[in-house]
Each structure stands twice: as structure tokens, then as C-alpha cells.
Please model this.
Amino acid sequence: MMALPKLDMVKQLDFNSEVRKNIQKIDSVISKLPDKTPRQKVFKWMSETHAFKDQEHVALKSLQKAIELGAEVGFHETFVRQTKTYPLFVKIAAIHPTFYVENLVRDMTERIQTMNADTGSLEEKLTSRELEILKHLTTGIPISAIAKQLHISQNTMKTHLRNVYRKLSVDGRHSAVEKAQKLLLI
Model:
């Protein structure tokens, strides 16, 4: 059987598992991370930032390197998702104020406020299948093609869509995707 290529999410999960197994040897785990591409370098430096957040000077040094490279290559969303390291980003913005870093902090602030404001705003949670369908809606693929990809009938697809629209209190595909993105479901 042919092995599938490891996607970024799988690599992240493998890394997290490795760190949990070898928490005492975190330096060695991080040093083994690849650092050939800009994405790999940023991932490695962000891993150091997370691992050494209790040692602020070390974490800030790693974060600064990641941000500098991220600014060069245009990373944005990668950093905005790092809400757990928000205080460190704010300190970097105070130490080295640049338009790029201030933009990141502003967008992170908005993301955190949205997460806090919208937490639990759905009365009825979406099922895993409904979330899967919702993610497919973002692609713009016709509903019939999504049903085929998911190996479900048209009627089952319609039932899932009705449930998604009802739970999100929306009237169609575009408003469902918009609201799901606002709620950080997708």
C-alpha cells in the first residue's frame, strides 16, 4: 500500500504527539524539525515559542524570527491563528512596532473577540457530518457533486442542508458559509 503524503495538519499532530512523549527532551524534538522552506522555519520557530512560553526571552526571540520571515513571505493567517501566544505578539509589537506586526495584533484581537462573543451562540450544535457538508459548501461545488463525494443520496444531502440552515438560522448556502466562518466553525 502506498503511503500518502503528510499534510501540514498531520505533521502538526505527529509533532504534538512526539512532544507529549518526550516533554523532557523538547529541545531535541524541536531541533529535529525540518527548516528548509519558509513554512518549515516558521513552524519550527513557532514551536519553540510555544514550548518556551514560560521563558519569555527565549519565546520572544523565536517569535521575532518567525514574524520577520513571515513578513517577508506574506504569512498572515498562520500567525492570526496563534491566539494562545497573543500576549507575546503584543510584546513584540511594543518592542518592534511595524505595520505588519500591528496588523497581526489587530487581527488577532478581532479573532479573539469574535471567538469570545460567539462561543455557544448556536442553540443546537452541528453534527460532524453537518460540519463536513458545511466545509464542502465553501468550495462552490454543486450540491449534487458534494453528495457524490460524500457517498450520500440527494435526499440525505437535502436533509443535512435543511438541518445546517436551521441550526445556523440562515436561508441558504452563502449565508451558511458566511455565518460559519464568523463563528469559526470552518
The first helix runs from residue 8 to 21.
